[in-house]
Amino acid sequence: MQVTTDVSNIHPQTSPACSGHVAALPLPTTSPVFRRVEASGGWLDIAETRHRPALRAGLDLIEKQPLVLLGFSPGSGYFSRRRVEVAIEAMAALFEEVLVVVPDTIVEHTYRALGYPEAQVVTKARNTSRNLQNRCQRAIELARVRYPGTRLHMLDWATDVEGQPGHDADVEEMRSLFRTHPGFRAAVLDQGRKVLAARRSDRPPTEAEVEEGVQYLLKEFAFVRRARRQLGRDLVIPYYQDFTLAQGLCDGQFLPAEDGVGWLIYEIKIEGAADPKDGQDER
């Protein structure tokens, strides 16, 4: 069951400003560990990675107790049940407030780009997202038992993002940047092409399909860009890969740098067995 969050309940908090936030790279296995957080069934390592301003800001913000935007991508094979549970519990152990984000409605762009019939696009996106949301909700309930003092919410994308004043203008800002900034356009298209190519083996995606698929990224980036202003407090955004494209939106590579927004890179280990492969949902 999905829980709809009224983001006005997110507790405002101010702290000294820190600047921070783009193609996703695997976390190097040799990366030193900044912080290890134990969880039921495994642990989460936060990497000591400071090669971008957004990552330095994220590590600096940890001790200031920012709001955590913990995102999970619908359709990604990485987010198995156990990984989701470890991620949410570890963040609940480390931070006072965690907002779980599953960008559900915009995943329609991905399925449309993959060539699904239009009649199936909404259904496929809804079912895929609901499965992940159920996984997250179960993990939230388990984490609340262990850490009752942590405020855990799940964001409702349709209401808390698409329903907010200024949303359309924020999306248009990203589309304008995509049209006019050669470096940003090339990086976004490259990321979109890789995502689609990984999901189909019969042929490379066409340029029209890539253009459709990257609408997901542009809408996601529009939220990342406005989240600090909308939620009214400093943020960290943990992710399991080095998402340099998104980091660059926040640390001045493509747009003016944002204060009070940082990124973290994490790695999850599952206890008692080999780490499950992407796409494997352990029961």
> Any idea what the radius of gyration is?
18 Å
Determine the N-to-C terminus distance: 19 Å
Let me know the average pLDDT.
88
Low-confidence stretches: 1-24, 278-283
Give the name of the CATH superfamily of the domain at 18-163 and 233-270. Answer: Cyclodipeptide synthase
Number of distinct beta strands: 9
**Strand line-up in the sheet with most strands:** 2-3-9-7-4-5-6
Largest β sheet strand count, sense and barrel closure:
7 strands, mixed
Gist of the model:
45% of the residues lie in helices and 16% in strands. It has nine helices and nine strands.
Q: What do you see in this structure?
A:
With 283 residues, the chain is an alpha/beta fold. It has a domain at 18-163 and 233-270: Cyclodipeptide synthase (Rossmann fold). It contains nine helices and nine strands. The chain has helices at 53-61, 81-94, 108-113, 118-146, 157-161, 167-180, 182-199, 207-231, 244-250, and strands spanning 24-25, 33-39, 42-47, 67-71, 97-101, 151-154, 235-239, 242-243, 261-270. The longest helix is centred in the middle third of the chain and has 29 residues, at 118-146. The protein is globular and about 45 Å long. The model is unreliable at 1-24 and 278-283 (pLDDT under 50).
